[in-house]
Structure formats: structure tokens, C-alpha cells
Amino acid sequence: AKSQGTSNYYFFTQALQIKSSYRLKIATELREALQLQQFEMVYQPIVRLSDGRILHAESLIRWRLSSGEILMPSNFITIAEETGLIVEIGDWVFNEVLHFLQSIAHDDVSIAVNISPAQLNSPKHSALSWHEKIQEAKILPRRLVFEVTESMMMFKSHLVSSKIKILQQGGCLFSLDDFGTGYSSLASLKNLEFDFIKIDLQFIKELHRDARDKSLVSAMLAMAKGLGLQTIAEGVETVEQVRLLKEMGCDFAQGYYYSKPVSAEEFKDMLSKSNHD
Ligand code: C2E
Ligand code: CA
Ligand code: CA
Ligand code: CA
Q1: Which of 15, 152, 208, 263 supports an S-S bond with 240, CB 3.0-4.6 Å?
Q2: Residue 154: burial class (beta carbons within 10 Å; 0-12, 13-18, 19+)
């Protein structure tokens, strides 16, 4: 029994080592990626349901390897969070979006930026320096919408909430992302003042065939309305979903039905078509 235990231990540690050396490799590559400017932002339009106009987009990161292959965030964000590199990557994302906003001379257009809880919880991240950069860039602060998830509430830290307040007092907007999936959705709404909630795509997927999803989405929309929050449905793929969401009074929709995430240039083309036709 004892030797059995030893060998289990051996395999266990070996598996951990493989995992951590893999992590180390990705972490090194992430650091290089920042220097080599291998990250890119793509933008997915967010459509106003009342008139079909595009005034917003969510920025989403991509990693273009030297081989040309494009890595999705699910392949590297977790490792970036665990190694703390998310702070530098997040600063890069922020600057990139700020420049993008400067290139769009239309004060009604806003861009959403995903912030990871690990980023806000790091003392290396400075909300004050973001605030200063927004002022230097002469961008209306409400053109930046920060998307945070409910998991951020897990930190329950003064650091996180004070950073959010600095950015809110500066005029930036906040969106509660993946709404309905966390363990403390309602507590998040109680503790912080959000401007938008984004209803997670898992509730939207079957909306047109599942009466239970329909009840859940109506309840979320009613609650948002009661709190004075705007609503965005994520992962909208079909015309039936669009029809239902409109009927139910959802404000905005985002998903493949309208567009996949596109390059900065493509998004600007879509903007000018949507707003001048
Ligand atoms: P998220 O914030 O929930 O982003 C929405 C995800 O849904 C995106 O995946 C988007 O491409 C995908 N999506 C959009 N429309 C549809 C649709 O109609 N159907 C389906 N099935 N999916 C749709 P993506 O780009 O792979 O991003 C995954 C996650 O990575 C994001 O989830 C976000 O949590 C994280 N992420 C992305 N960019 C950043 C970033 O710049 N910083 C940080 N910290 N996290 C990021
Ligand atoms: Ca998001
Ligand atoms: Ca989401
Ligand atoms: Ca998500």
C-alpha cells in the first residue's frame, strides 16, 4: 500500500510539473508577445434594438503568433491572470481602445473594455493613471464602458471597489458582464452602481424554444428596469431571438446574428454605414 502511495505521489507531482512548465512557457511567450506587439483588438458591434443602430462595440483581445495563427483569449487569459501579466496586457488593451476612440470623432460612440478581477485586485494596476490618460486623450469618459464579472465580488476587497469608484467618479461607465451566471449576481448589483447588465448567452441560446429561459430573461429585464440599468443581450444568433428580445424590452443586442468581432477598420466602416444611411 505504501509503494502504491509513493507512485501515486510520483505521478501526481509529475503531472503538476508538466502543467507548471507549460504555464511557464506560455508566460514567457506572453511577455514576448507584449514586446513584439502580437496582440490585436477586435470589435463586436452592440446594436440598439429600438432602431438597429450601432453606437457601441465590445473590444476583444486576440493573440497573433509569428506563425500567423490566432489564439483566442480562452487560451491565454487565465495564465495571464495567474502570472500577473494581465496587468500589463490590460494596460495595453486600455491604451489601444483609448486610441481607437480618439480616431472616432463621434461622441455617442462608446467601446466596452473587459477588465479581469485579477487586474483590479493587483496593486500594480492604477485606476488613477487610467483616469489621467482619459483626460490627456480628451475622450469623454462615458465613451469607455468597463465590463466586469460577478467573480470580482469574490475579492470583496477595498482595493477593487475603490478603483471602480475612481473610474466611476471620473465619468466612466460600468457593465456587469455574464449576468446571471455568478454566485452573487444580486449582491453585485446591491454593492456597486452599474450602468448596464449583460445577460449571459446561456440564457439567450434557447430563448425562442425554452419557456423557462424566457421567464428568467423577463425577470432580469424587469429587475434591470427597476434599477434604472440598460440591458444588453449577449450571444444573439437568430432573428427569433431578436424579435423576442425587442418584444420583452431589452435595450441592446450583441452576437453573430449582427456580426462577429471585426477589425478596427471594419468596425469603423460599419459605424459610418449605420449612422449615415
Ligand atoms: P465575454 O466578455 O463574455 O465575451 C463574449 C464572448 O462571446 C466573446 O468570445 C465573443 O466573441 C463571443 N460571442 C460573441 N457573439 C457570440 C454569439 O453570437 N454566439 C457565441 N456562441 N459566442 C459569441 P472571445 O472573444 O473568445 O472572448 C472570451 C472571453 O475572454 C471574454 O468573454 C472575456 O471574458 C475574455 N476577454 C476577451 N478580451 C479580453 C480583454 O481584452 N481583457 C480581458 N481581461 N478579458 C478578455
Ligand atoms: Ca465581456
Ligand atoms: Ca459576457
Ligand atoms: Ca464570458
Answers
A1: 208
A2: middle
